[in-house]
Amino acid sequence: MEFSAKQIADLIQGRVEGNEEAKIHTFAKIEEGKEGAISFLSNPKYTHYIYDTQSSVVLVNDDLQLERPVSATLIRVKNAYEAVAKLLQFYTQMKPKKTGVDPLAFVSPKAKLGANCYVGAFAYIGDGTVIGDNAQIYPHTVIGDGVTVGNDCLLYPNVTIYEGCRLGNRVTIHAGSVIGADGFGFAPNADGYDKIPQIGIVTIEDDVEIGANTCVDRSTMGSTVIRKGVKLDNLVQIAHNVEVGENTVMSAQVGVAGSTKIGAWCMCGGQAGFAGHITVGDKTFVGAQCGVNSSVKGNESLIGSPAQEPKGFFKSSVLFRKLPDIYRQLNDLQKEVERLKNKEQ
Question: Is 277 among the residues known to form the active site?
Answer without folding.
Answer: no
